[in-house]
Amino acid sequence: MKIVTNSEQETLDFARKFVLELKGGEVFLLEGNLGAGKSVFVRGVAMGLGVKKNITSPTFVIMKVYDVAKHDKIKKLVHIDAYRVEADDLFQIGLEEYLNDPETVVFIEWGEKVAKDLKKYKFKTIKIEHQDNLREINIQ
Ligand SMILES: Nc1ncnc2c1ncn2[C@@H]1O[C@H](COP(=O)(O)OP(=O)(O)OP(=O)(O)O)[C@@H](O)[C@H]1O
Ligand SMILES: [Mg+2]
User: Atom 24 (ligand 1): residue with closest C-alpha?
Assistant: First the structure.
């Protein structure tokens, strides 16, 4: 699936609708440079799932777990920023209990850093390329 957006709002709207594709248990690795829109995308997903708390960047917390209010199967949204950490750090703080858990969806920014350590799990990638306000979002 590939889509082009021209503003933050368009990315939020797309991510909000993307939630309709989710069944629970999905893990997404987000790839894209600084400022590509990875966090914006996850914020849109959070809106679509009815997460009440404000989604902030997990850069300093590494992993954030949000309660999902608006989905019949998904109960938790996990948002990770792997920019400054290794997969082992994530495993140490309990990531594995969430990976492919049917009641959870996981989004990992800078996911390419940990992809090789997640081989035993099922995951998809969301690649975002950007130029000015244009974002090309590729989900595979
Ligand atoms: N079409 C667009 N879609 C998403 N964001 C856009 C778009 N056009 C401009 N922006 C801006 O790009 C920035 C994206 O920031 P965001 O924090 O989501 O990036 P990021 O990929 O998470 O970066 P980092 O690696 O630093 O975490 C925001 O300031 C947003 O307003
Ligand atoms: Mg970010």
Answer: 34
